[in-house]
Design brief:
The chain has eight helices and four strands. Helix 1 crosses helix 5 and helix 3 packs antiparallel against helix 4. It folds into two domains: 72 residues, Glutaredoxin, CATH 3.40.30.10; 109 residues, Glutathione S-transferase Yfyf (Class Pi), Chain A, domain 2. It is globular, with a radius of gyration of 17 Å. It has a four-stranded mixed β-sheet with strand order 2-1-3-4, with helices on one face. Strand 1, helix 1 and strand 2 form a beta-alpha-beta unit. With 201 residues, the chain is an alpha+beta fold.
Length: 201
């Protein structure tokens, strides 16, 4: 298999963490979707990463689809089997992905020429980011991870989303606002799967 993506994408990192946690061998192919010569459309017609090229040449895309495929084919330890637990974990996965989505949209808008920026659009996205942080803080229970004693897809998605904010929007300082999220994040970062997928500075 080959994973096509960028080291700085929180969605690509989510897949890379799953690959590392489940010890699945996979070649990583660095691609920039913004480059004129990008090959990403070969694997995803939407020109988005991550995309996973399977051994037979077929590709699957969207981090949630890839996550479910990798978990199911490697023993199913990260996505709960119980229907209610599964729904709760996938809901938190959607929350982590949504935090990253909104942050990326705000950052892209801020990157436009000042005269073309839409401050209301930026504010709307940042409201989503901050609401997502608060929701994650409320959802994290007394255990070490969202699901209790063991890491699952909720931790991976929320971790990649919140750590991306630190990487691209360090001014948000969510760790200072939520000590229990900070302790949880430190646990994640101590795991080899997170340590080895840290984006380059």
């Amino acid at each position: 298999m080959r994973l096509i993506g960028s080291q700085t994408s929180p969605f690509v990192r989510k897949v890379r963490v799953i690959l590392a946690e489940r010890r699945i061998p996979c070649e990583f192919v660095e691609e920039n979707v913004w480059a004129p010569e990008t090959t990403v459309p070969r694997y995803n017609p939407l020109t988005k990463v991550p995309a996973l090229e399977l051994d037979g040449g077929e590709s699957i895309y969207d981090s949630r689809v890839i996550a479910e495929y990798l978990d199911a084919t490697s023993g199913g330890a990260l996505i709960p089997a119980d229907p209610l637990a599964r729904a709760k974990a996938r809901r938190l996965e959607a929350l982590g992905d949504g935090i990253a989505d909104a942050g990326i949209l705000a950052r892209l808008e801020r990157g436009r020429e000042p005269a073309r920026q839409d401050p209301k659009w930026i504010d709307r996205q940042m409201d989503k980011v901050n609401a997502g942080i608060e929701a994650a803080a409320r959802a994290l229970g007394p255990g070490p991870y969202f699901g209790g004693a063991e890491l699952d897809i909720a931790d991976i998605a929320c971790g990649c989303g919140l750590l991306w904010l630190e990487f691209r929007m360090p001014e948000i300082k969510w760790r200072e606002r939520h000590a229990h999220l900070a302790a949880w994040a430190a646990r994640l970062e101590s795991r080899p799967a997170f340590a080895t997928t840290r984006p380059p500075r």
